[in-house]
Amino acid sequence: MSEPKAPTPTPAGDTYKGWLFKWTNYIKGYQRRWFVLSNGLLSYYRTQAEMGHTCRGTINLATANIAVEDSCNFVISNGGAQTYHLKASSEVERQRWITALELAKAKAVRNQAESDDSGDECPTSPPTSGQGGGARNSNSEVQSTLRTLGSKVEDLSTCNDLIAKHGSALQRSLSELEGVRLGGDTDGKIRQVTERATLFRITSNAMINACRDFLALAQAHSKRWQKALHSERDQRIRLEETLEQLAKQHNHLERAFRGATVLPLSQSNPALNSKISGSAKGDASDEDDENEFFDAMEDPAGFITVPADPKYHRRSGSNISGLSAEAGIDDQSLCDEQSLGSNPESPQSLDVEPVRKRRTKIPDKPNYSLNLWSIMKNCIGKELSKIPMPVNFNEPISMLQRLSEDLEYYELLDKAAKCQSSLEQLCYVAAFTVSSYSTTVHRTGKPFNPLLGETYELDRLRESGYRSLCEQVSHHPPAAAHHAISERGWTLRQEISLASKFRGKYLSIMPLGSIQCVFEKSNNHYSWKKVTTTVHNIIVGKLWIDQSGEIDVVNHRTGDCCHLKFAPYSYFSRDVARKVTGVVTDKEGKAHYVLSGTWDEKMEFSRVMQSNKGENGTEGKQKTVYQTLKAKELWRKNPLPEGAETMYYFSSLALTLNESEEGVAPTDSRRRPDQQLMEAGRWDEANAEKQRLEEKQRSVRREREREAQRAANLPEEGAEGVEVAEDGVHQDNYEAMWFERTEDVVTGESMHVYKGGYWEAKDHGNWDICPDIY
Question: N or C: which end of the chain has fewer CB within 10 A?
Answer without folding.
Answer: N
